[in-house]
Amino acid sequence: MNQVKIAPSLLAADFGNLQRDVEMVNESDAAWHHLDIMDGVFVPNISYGMPVVKAIAKHASKPLDAHLMIIDPDRYIQTFADLGVYLLTVHYEACQHLHRTVQAIRAAGMKAGVALNPHTDVSLLKFILKDLDLVLVMSVNPGFGGQSFIPATYDKIRTLKKMLKDQESSALIEVDGGVGPDNASKLIDAGADVLVAGSSVFKAKDPKAIIAEMASVKVS
Ligand code: DX5
Ligand code: ZN
């Protein structure tokens, strides 16, 4: 069993000191940089776009994990590949032809992930699981950092883990929203492979210590 991966969400970073915060992640025990792209249509908030992704990519030394909360993400797949994104995640609820989108992400040379809103059943991914590198289980409604974790997520992760095992799929399970040292162990026990953490990391006095604490949780 691999060690859990921590992906700090730069949405909670200080954008006036973005390089500093990206470098903090570089020097930490984090595995990836998590980038939240919001369009104000799919979710009721606008975060940042290509110029900021480019600036992050310039200073980041770890793989870029981009989470697109936008409608019609197909239009930007090549752009994100050109910016050096490692893993591109689109929302199930935002794609008309999800399988085609996933194929296009892989054809552009990136790993492909699909995100599910809290109300979306994991069984809807049954016939596409084999084609995915990652499933992102949203544990808050997407759009904002700093929200409370939704407890039903644990069961959802357990159900998904079983589906992946049954299909002999090596896709990773990523959890995003309201994640921190308080629920990290329980999430890992349920089957999470990647923990996204925004507020719990960047609002902490010692962000690197929080990342290290979560990264060192033993996988049973
Ligand atoms: C929410 C984003 C998250 C967010 C997490 O829509 O997808 O990545 O930044 O922030 P916290 O950890 O503060 O819930
Ligand atoms: Zn996210």
Automatic annotation (TrEMBL):
Q: Which residues form the signal peptide?
A: none
Q: Name one GO cellular component term.
A: cytoplasm
Q: Which domain of life is it from?
A: Bacteria
Gene3D superfamilies reported for this sequence: Aldolase class I
Cofactor binding remark: Binds 1 divalent metal cation per subunit.
Reactions accelerated catalytically: D-ribulose 5-phosphate = D-xylulose 5-phosphate
Q: In which pathway does it act?
A: Carbohydrate degradation
Q: Name one GO biological process term.
A: pentose catabolic process
Q: What class of enzyme is it?
A: isomerase
The lineage is:
Bacteria, Pseudomonadati, Bacteroidota, Flavobacteriia, Flavobacteriales
Protein species of origin:
Muriicola jejuensis
What job does this protein perform?
A: Catalyzes the reversible epimerization of D-ribulose 5-phosphate to D-xylulose 5-phosphate.
Residues reported in the UniProt entry to bind substrate: 9, 67, 143-146, 176-178, 198-199
PANTHER family linked to this entry? RIBULOSE-5-PHOSPHATE-3-EPIMERASE (PTHR11749)
Question: In its UniProt entry, what is this protein called?
Answer: Ribulose-phosphate 3-epimerase
Q: Nucleus: is it a keyword of this entry?
A: no
The protein's required cofactor(s) are namely: Co(2+); a divalent metal cation; Zn(2+); Fe(2+)
Q: Which residues form a coiled coil?
A: none
> Which residues are responsible for catalysis?
36 (proton acceptor), 176 (proton donor)
What keywords are assigned to this protein?
Answer: Carbohydrate metabolism, Cobalt, Isomerase, Manganese, Metal-binding, Zinc
Which residues participate in a divalent metal cation binding? 34, 36, 67, 176
Under which EC number(s) is this enzyme classified? Answer: 5.1.3.1
Looking up InterPro entries in the UniProt record yields:
Aldolase_TIM, Ribul_P_3_epim, Ribul_P_3_epim-like, RibuloseP-bd_barrel
MF terms in GO: D-ribulose-phosphate 3-epimerase activity; metal ion binding
